[in-house]
Design a protein that fits this description.
41% helix, 27 helices, single chain, alpha/beta, five-stranded parallel sheet, seven-stranded parallel sheet
């Protein structure tokens, strides 16, 4: 049973907070260190100052400094990587980075994420159904676990020295293992990644070996005086290949050990949130195991039934009533009603007695810092939004109303209602002309001719060699390009001067590709600030922010656009840039568009209608662009959908409906293309096994996919599924600064050729090259072309 001596949780808290800095300060100091422009001491000092500033900000917003309401969740790169390093799960190929005590310093930590020389980094994939990417731990039958790092303890002590009692946040043991990759023989230092795991092995098999390390970590925090620790278990909201019964049994075993191996006050009280969805069946399991508090997501999930609540015993219920993933103001009245419904199933006075607390549905790492910084946004639109700081205020308002009665936060509730009313009365939110077009879409609008017929026509027109080489779309964005865009935006560069600058860059990129020997070229996208924002800025129904940065992975940040109303395309977007590039060369040039699902996934999307309706509106706008590109003579058009797998619902029962509307949206956008126009798509950094049928249903002529870090792991799955269209598995990992050798690339191309017929196989990088430098890109592409030629000669 739950330990009744546990300290009381605060009535209001958050599960996490953005960590990149309001102006991306962490990104800048880390990248300066990587570039050799600053010393390690400078980096650590500036990071410490950022953490101090963040704690101060949260106290100023109203979270108490002395009750563990402020989470300690800072990371230099990724929370799962932090857990792997803390637990000693460092693959042997990085053993040369460990000191004599087996510890990893900060430069070594970054090497796990980015690779070094011939040492490949850890794989990277999407964090549940978000656009955040995590580093994938590698766990095998012989992986040694130990408490190898004290970063969790140090962060707690750092706050304590300033008089702030924080709540350490760690990825929980079940989630850590379920997110890990099963590996076999772990090679020695400097070697390639591990071999395939033994048949039937899963990382969850290692739970008993891992738990003593968590126990030791809890003891260290208990000795330091931490009253609470947050062990995140979002994996309990997911349907895995592992049977559900086994996942729940693992959770019960894990938390029974953690709750009983050490007791209060030897360890902190255990708070285990299950964000990102519903996990009603997991809550009684956690309570039965002895955790002091369980957290649930009331935004993506429903309130537990009275029967489930009755099984929670003395466990505190921490309700995620404020959306941690989107930016719309909370409907405080509706949220309070959900909390009251939840309270009704708990003992009388639960809120007043500290048995019911209010929090965010997830960490706030998925939203920007402060909407008050967006002075360029339309004031009315800005009034509809809540970023991280405003969400903290909403949590506090709900907690006040829950414990103090309806009038306790009346002004906040009245303001929220007024702002929501203003939003839904705005004429741009609902446009009948757009809705009539969506309603008129018929089956003929989402169907192309058979692939065999298309392929024959395209082969005749394009006349490409076997294993054609290309890139995914973008080329490096130099400081000169970014400066020209900024000067144009500020009015310091005229439209004519800006166009001339972009055309000069496009010509340079086209000539470079010709010199490298690529078969299908791109224009390089110098005019695009971001693959979603660029389109959003030119579509009606969207708005862009100035400072709305969120972390995608490591130091890579994006500014998700805000999709607030019905969507329409007032004018062509990409046609003139692509037409100009095509005029410079006799080789085919791809038109490059971002697909409707990805535009939704990487934007903050309206929450007042089904996403299927919103996706169809975006798809119709893109359909117009595809038609205009084709009319301009562009024979290859790529519609990127890297987020297709990302939005897949975490529970199996909801997946078919999602896949139906997401595939239909892609086909609305692309089925307008004629027989001889080759339609490409691109998917990246996801586990594709669950969506192979959907990839096939997209009916693209060529699909490029991330595959370099996983060494073509997805291709046997595609082959087994009978996928019979063009495939471009990535052979150059662009998320690492490493430049692969020609032999390494040739090996990957050869592996791909074992699963894909040569007439269907394309050779390309994993993703766009925007974030890389030309010093890396040029030699890598040169080796890619040479490797393709070597394999082509053997066919």
């Amino acid at each position: 049973m739950t330990d009744r001596t546990a300290p009381q949780l605060p009535a209001a808290t958050i599960l996490g907070y953005p960590r990149i800095g309001p102006r991306r300060e962490l990104k800048r100091v880390v990248e300066a260190f990587w570039a050799g422009h600053s010393e390690l001491d400078d980096l650590e000092a500036q990071a410490a100052e950022q953490r101090r500033s963040q704690r101060t900000r949260l106290v100023d917003l109203g979270l108490a400094p002395d009750d563990a309401s402020i989470p300690s969740d800072f990371s230099y790169y990724d929370q799962v990587l932090d857990a792997a390093v803390t637990l000693g799960a460092v693959p042997p190929r990085f053993a040369h980075l460990l000191d004599e005590d087996g510890a990893l310093d900060l430069p070594g930590y970054f090497t796990l994420a980015r690779g070094e020389g011939d040492v490949a980094p850890l794989e990277m994939t999407k964090w549940f159904d978000t656009n955040y990417h995590y580093l994938v731990p590698e766990i095998g039958p012989r992986t040694e676990f130990r408490l190898a790092d004290d970063r969790v303890l140090r962060l707690f002590l750092e706050g304590a020295t300033e008089g702030v009692t924080t709540r350490p946040v760690v990825v929980g043991p079940v989630t850590f293992l379920l997110l890990s990759k099963a590996v076999g023989e772990q090679h020695g230092e400097g070697a390639a990644p591990a071999t395939a795991p033994p048949a039937g092995f899963t990382p969850l098999d290692r739970l008993e070996d891992l738990l003593p390390v968590y126990v030791e970590l809890l003891r260290s925090l208990g000795r330091a005086g931490a009253p609470w620790v947050q062990l995140d278990e979002p994996a309990l909201a997911v349907d895995w290949d592992v049977p559900r019964e086994r996942v729940l049994a693992a959770a019960e075993r894990a938390y029974a050990v953690l709750a009983t191996e050490t007791t209060r006050p030897e360890r902190p009280a255990l708070f285990v949130p299950v964000p990102y969805g519903s996990a009603e069946d997991a809550l009684p399991v956690l309570a039965r195991a002895g955790v002091e508090a369980v957290g649930l997501d009331l935004v993506r999930g429903a309130a537990p039934s009275p029967e489930v609540l009755a099984q929670l015993g003395d466990a505190v219920v921490v309700a995620g009533a404020v959306d941690g993933r989107n930016v719309w103001r909370t409907d405080l009245d509706a949220a309070l009603a959900r909390l009251r419904e939840l309270e009704a199933g708990l003992p009388d006075g639960a809120a007043r007695d500290g048995r019911l607390c209010v929090t965010t549905s997830t960490s706030l790492q998925h939203v920007p810092y402060d909407v008050g910084a967006e002075r360029a946004l339309d004031p009315q639109l800005r009034s509809w939004l809540a970023f991280a700081d405003q969400k903290v205020e909403e949590v506090l308002a709900l907690a006040t109303a829950l414990t103090g009665g309806p009038g306790a936060a009346s002004e906040a509730f009245r303001t929220a209602a007024d702002r929501r009313r203003s939003r839904f009365e705005h004429p741009g939110v609902r446009r009948e002309d757009v809705r009539r077009r969506v309603a008129a879409i018929g089956e003929e609008d989402v169907t192309r001719a058979d692939f065999a017929e298309r392929a024959a026509a395209q082969a005749e027109v394009l006349d490409l060699p076997p294993l054609p080489t290309t890139t995914i779309g973008s080329f490096p964005q130099t400081s000169e390009i970014r400066s020209a865009r900024a000067r144009h935006r500020a009015g310091d560069l005229s439209e004519e001067e800006y166009t001339a600058a972009m055309r000069a860059e496009i010509e340079r990129v086209v000539r470079l590709q010709e010199e490298l020997g690529l078969d299908v070229l791109v224009h390089g996208e110098p005019e695009r600030n971001d693959m979603v924002q660029y389109f959003a800025e030119q579509l009606e129904g969207f708005a862009a922010t100035e400072h709305g940065w969120v972390q995608s992975y490591g130091t890579r940040c994006t500014r998700p656009s805000i999709l607030w109303g019905d969507v329409a395309r007032p004018a062509p977007i990409t046609v003139e840039w692509t037409r100009y590039a095509a005029s410079l060369t006799d080789k085919p040039v791809k038109g490059m568009l971002t697909g409707p699902v990805t535009i939704l996934a990487w934007s903050f999307v309206r929450d007042d209608q089904p996403p299927a309706d919103t996706a169809a509106q975006v798809a119709l706008a893109l359909r117009e662009e595809v038609a205009d590109l084709e009319a301009a003579g562009i024979g290859i058009i790529q519609v990127d959908e890297p987020a297709l797998r990302e939005l897949l619902p975490l529970r199996a029962e909801h997946r078919p409906a999602y896949l139906d509307w997401s595939v239909r949206a892609f086909r609305i956008a692309t089925a307008v293309a004629g027989l001889r126009t080759q339609v490409h798509t691109h998917l990246c950094y996801s586990e594709f096994g669950d969506v192979i049928d959907a990839i096939d249903a997209l009916d693209a002529d060529v699909t490029s996919i991330e595959a370099a870090r996983s060494r073509m792991e997805v291709l046997p799955e595609l082959h087994a599924a009978g996928f019979a269209r063009g495939v471009g598995p990535g052979v150059y990992d662009i998320h690492s600064p490493r430049v692969p050798s020609e032999d390494e690339v040739a090996e990957l191309v050869g592996l791909a050729a074992e699963s894909v017929h040569p007439r269907l196989l394309w050779v390309n990088p994993d993703c766009g090259l925007k974030t890389r430098r030309y010093e890396e890109v040029e030699p890598a592409l040169r080796r890619l072309v040479a490797a393709a030629g070597r394999v082509r000669a053997r066919l």
